[in-house]
Design goal:
Blueprint (H helix, E strand, L loop, with lengths): L2 H4 L3 E5 L10 E7 L2 E7 L4 H21 L7 H9 L4 E4 L1 H16 L9 H7 L27 E3 L5 E4 L13 H15 L5 E5 L2 E5 L7 E6 L6 E7 L4 E6 L4 E4 L2 E4 L13 E8 L2 H26 L3 E6 L4 E3 L1 H12 L8
Antiparallel strand pairs: 1-9, 2-3, 3-7, 4-6, 5-6, 7-8, 8-11, 9-10, 11-14, 12-13, 14-15, 15-16
The structure holds adenosine-5'-diphosphate (ADP) and magnesium ion.
Magnesium ion binds next to helix 7.
Length: 342
């Protein structure tokens, strides 16, 4: 069992009180380096199987194309950028990189898709192995500003321009969010109105208008209890980042996979962050950026990114909540549904 499944942060339960689904279809798969589940509540079984097949296939293509060190498009792009300052890119990947650069700017560089060479240096690029030792301090230097990186050109002829060679673009901080958006699109196109997709603790909920929300338990990352409960309604993504997902301990210090681009070291201060937003890609980038922001810049960076619902737990277990998130946590508790929890 890997660290991720041991410490799976978010689990979800469907509220069944209001409507009893006629059909529930469940698919478990392994993708994006993690376990994923697709739950479809309101389609006949054969249709649900068909759409789950489509999702499974699409996720495997996206995982291949968006993985920075593989054989897919992003891996090839990075191999080109090793010795070139520009390279052509498909419209889909180009738009994803473009969006991630906008989010870099909005987050004050805390989320940065050009963090790839640092991720590689720390050994967090290979999801199958966990690094055991910290790199030498003199080798850890921040790559400096990546402001020169941009995506230009019209659809059909976009290029990534880096301004220097050796830039490694890593979309690991938004790939699952972008993939959740694609899952939601496929589910809606197939007519599903009630469904839940969970990519290793990052999830998206589809609910019918006025139908029951999904109840999401947010687990305390350092204990066996629930840090909070929230209700997710149609189109909302609940995305978490934490220092418990991929990490190693050395000299009684924890080194994890979210790197502060300014220092070149794993971010300090925050232990876990959960963000809720209707834009899963934004939620994913924000969760990563807020880990880097830590408690001091939590409110500022949430605001700059336009995130209303965010929670952060720091090293001492203190919970920081935006106003909207605080109201939602209270709401969920006030419903008195805790008995539904396992
Ligand atoms: P996970 O994908 O494990 O749920 P995140 O969404 O926070 O968690 O993404 C972490 C991944 O993002 C890392 O494994 C790495 O590939 C990449 N990454 C690490 N630090 C940053 C950063 N500061 N900005 C953007 N991406 C990052
Ligand atoms: Mg993220």
């Amino acid at each position: 069992m890997n660290a991720r499944s041991l410490f799976l942060l978010v689990f979800a339960l469907s509220l069944t009180a209001c409507s009893q689904p006629t059909e529930t279809y469940d698919r478990t798969l392994y993708t994006f380096g993690t376990l994923a589940t697709v739950q479809i509540y309101d389609l006949p079984r054969d249709e649900a199987i068909e759409i789950a097949d489509q999702i499974e296939l699409r996720l495997s293509v996206l995982n291949r194309d968006w993985y920075a060190w593989g054989d897919g498009e992003l891996g090839q792009l990075n191999r080109t950028l090793a010795d070139a300052e520009q390279a052509p890119v498909s419209d889909l990947l180009g738009s994803l990189i473009k969006r991630s650069l906008e989010l870099r700017d909005l987050s004050g560089g805390r989320f940065d898709p050009a963090v790839g060479s640092l991720v590689e240096l720390w050994g967090f690029h290979d999801s199958k192995t966990t690094p055991v030792r910290k790199p030498a301090d003199q080798d850890i230097r921040s790559d400096g500003s990546t402001l020169g990186v941009s995506v230009t050109g019209e659809n059909g002829s976009q290029i990534v321009v880096t301004g220097r060679t050796g830039i490694v673009i890593d979309l690991g901080g938004i790939a699952k969010g972008a993939a959740l958006a694609e899952c939601a699109r496929l589910l809606r196109a197939a007519g599903a109105r009630r469904a839940l997709v969970n990519l290793g603790g990052d999830l998206i909920a589809l609910t019918e208008e006025g139908g029951p929300e999904f109840r999401i338990g947010i687990q305390n990352p350092r204990a066996e209890d629930i840090a909070g409960l929230i209700l997710a309604s149609d189109g909302e993504a609940v995305v978490s980042s934490g220092d418990y997902e991929r990490f190693f301990d050395s000299d009684e210090q924890r080194f994890h996979h979210i790197i502060d681009p300014e220092t070149g070291y794993p971010s300090a201060g925050a232990v876990a962050v959960t963000v809720i937003d209707k834009d899963p890609l934004l939620a994913d980038a924000a969760a990563t950026a807020l880990m880097v922001a830590g408690p001091d810049a939590f409110y500022l960076v949430s605001k700059d990114l336009g995130i209303e619902n965010a929670a952060l737990i720091d090293q001492s277990g203190t919970l920081y909540l935006t106003d909207a998130m605080q109201a939602r946590l209270v709401d969920a508790r006030a419903r008195g549904d805790e008995a539904v929890l396992p």
